[in-house]
Amino acid sequence: MSTVSRHYFGCESLEDDHSFYIDIIEIMQEDYGMYVWPCSIILAEYVWQQRLRFSGVSVVELGAGTSLPGLVAAKLGANVILTDSSHKTEVLENIEKICNLNKLNCRILGLAWGEWQTPLFDLHPQIILGADVLYENTDFDDLFATVTFLLQNTPGSVFITTYHNRSGHHLIEFLMVKWGLRCSKLIDGFSFMPQTKAASLQGNIQLVEIMLNHTTN
Ligand SMILES: C[S@@+](CC[C@H](N)C(=O)[O-])C[C@H]1O[C@@H](n2cnc3c(N)ncnc32)[C@H](O)[C@@H]1O
């Protein structure tokens, strides 16, 4: 059964005091990519609060699922490419419907982590977004391979991701060292959330900004 959830962004992100909202089509009991995960709500709020960084910037969202962070970036004037696994046509089709529903013109692309398909080589995002993409240990290296490639493809670019910190930050630290990356910012996902939104979320969610280790910015 599909439902539409409405997500407000504004001073207090309240219904009666908002700048805009995004409607998301969710299909419960379907694939992971068919509903909005808490990490997505937190990353979307961060994008909103960091809005000066997004105007006119090229953004790629990885494992976008229902794409809330990428859609907020598009609303703020970024040129956004929303991606999810090329093997998940139902997720990609749902992204298209959500873009149409919100009248947002984003490119939608099938992109499986760790797979070297032609469109990947033409991507030059200044900001890469990923909400709850670090959840399956066996996929971490594939994800980091794609992220590292994209960071190398655009000097000065950054990967901003939110994840459930289930076993400490050690695994992420290990992966960053392994892939020649560094953390430029690490914050508690709840530290910047408006109370109205935080109240409905649970977990230990971290937000991290990751760059190539040898860049100076
Ligand atoms: C937990 S869901 C998060 C979805 C969305 N970002 C959110 O937070 O609401 C993980 C997403 O990653 C996508 N995904 C999983 N494995 C993938 C892979 N190997 N390549 C690309 N996308 C993948 C799934 O289809 C799904 O949309």
TrEMBL record:
Keywords (A to Z) from UniProt: Methyltransferase, S-adenosyl-L-methionine, Transferase
Pfam families: Methyltransf_16
Molecular functions per Gene Ontology: methyltransferase activity
Coiled coil feature spans: none
Keyword NADP attached: no
One Gene Ontology CC term in the entry: cytoplasm
InterPro entries: Methyltransf_16, SAM-dependent_MTases_sf
Signal peptide segment: none
One Gene Ontology term from the biological process aspect of the record: methylation
Statement: the UniProt record of this protein carries the keyword S-adenosyl-L-methionine: yes
Family: Belongs to the methyltransferase superfamily. METTL23 family.
Name under which the protein is recorded: Methyltransferase-like protein 23
Lineage: Eukaryota, Viridiplantae, Streptophyta, Embryophyta, Tracheophyta
